[in-house]
Amino acid sequence: MFLLLTAASFASENKVIGSGTITFVGTIVEGNCEMETNKNTFKTKCWNGVEMEESR
Fold this sequence. Notes:
Largest sheet: 3 strands, antiparallel
Helix content: 10-25%
Strand content: 25-35%
Number of strands: 3
């Protein structure tokens, strides 16, 4: 019984132990879109989660 009461009191406390900022720096090396230009047209093919979808 004592352990249950102790566990309940710890569960109700929300203390911030630390805080800060995480900064990510880098480059996307494998994108999900391909781009193609030909004279006056610009086409993109992007992965939509199932297949490559083309748009102009």
